[in-house]
Automatic annotation (TrEMBL):
Single GO molecular function: transferase activity
GO CC annotation terms, alphabetical: cytosol
Xref: PANTHER family: GLUTAMINE AMIDOTRANSFERASE YLR126C-RELATED
InterPro entries cross-referenced by the UniProt entry: ChyE-like, Class_I_gatase-like, GATASE
UniProt-recorded name of the protein: Glutamine amidotransferase class-I
Keyword GTP-binding in record: no
SUPFAM superfamilies membership: Class I glutamine amidotransferase-like (SSF52317)
Organism: Maridesulfovibrio salexigens (strain ATCC 14822 / DSM 2638 / NCIMB 8403 / VKM B-1763) (Desulfovibrio salexigens)
């Protein structure tokens, strides 16, 4: 995986979420020998030397993709640069949603009628980003979703509450995943507890598939495959 360099955009706001994402990225990328730089939301407008990166990873966010934010234009600009130079992009949760908003527009993102919080089974296709993981269980934590993709997109994953858990833009190295392979395993139950204390209809949205640390480790293949195939 020589000559691969990833720009990681950690646009999470809550400290606990931000740290868990950072730790997970370090755990996976360091094990793969991947060079990466992390940029946080406060510095997103100042990203430079984009041409030196081969891959872009966009995190989730507590923000809603259906609303406007002062940093949207900066994120749009970075994505536009990577697409224009045909470099690889992987968006996770909010990042997955924002990619579709960027490419197709706001009519293709919406509030979910069936949000998911917790652990769930992910039904996956034979897309090469899932190579080595014939079955997949992962974490979910979202209240928004994407919808009405056109023929340029292949739906590559779903769950029983979300019809589009993953997509690839056909013929492009552009992927989005609604679920969360990007938090530390031991933090997911803690984050679920935060939702329990703050969401009035928690029991309606709580996903309770038992997932062991070994089962979650299969999510590592996603990052490895993403780097290798693009």
């Amino acid at each position: 995986m020589k000559n691969k360099r990833v720009l990681v955009l950690n646009i999470l706001g809550e400290t606990a979420f931000k740290i868990s994402f950072d730790n997970r990225v370090a755990e996976v990328f360091q094990s793969l020998g991947i060079t990466y730089d992390t940029v946080y939301l406060a510095d997103i407008a100042d990203v430079s030397e984009i041409e030196s990166y081969t891959h872009l990873l966009i995190s989730g966010s507590e923000a809603s993709v259906t609303e406007e934010h002062c940093w949207d234009s900066s994120l749009d600009s970075i994505i536009r640069s990577f697409i224009a130079t045909e470099k690889s992009i992987l968006g996770l949760c909010f990042g997955h949603q924002f990619l579709i908003r960027h490419i197709l527009g706001k009519d293709h993102v919406r509030k979910s009628q069936t949000p998911e919080v917790g652990w769930t089974d992910i039904s996956i296709s034979g897309n090469p980003i899932f190579s080595g993981a014939p079955t997949l269980k992962s974490a979910v934590l979202h209240f928004d979703e994407i919808c009405d993709l056109d023929e340029r997109f292949e739906i590559i994953a779903k769950s029983n509450r979300c019809d589009i858990q993953g997509f690839q833009m056909k013929g492009k190295h552009i992927w989005g995943l609604q679920f969360h392979p990007d938090f530390m395993y031991e933090d997911i139950d803690k984050f679920t507890g935060i939702m329990r204390d703050n969401v009035t209809n928690f029991e309606e949205i709580h996903c309770q598939t038992p997932v062991s640390c070994t089962e979650f480790a299969k999510n590592d293949e996603i990052f490895k495959n993403w780097i290798e195939i693009s």
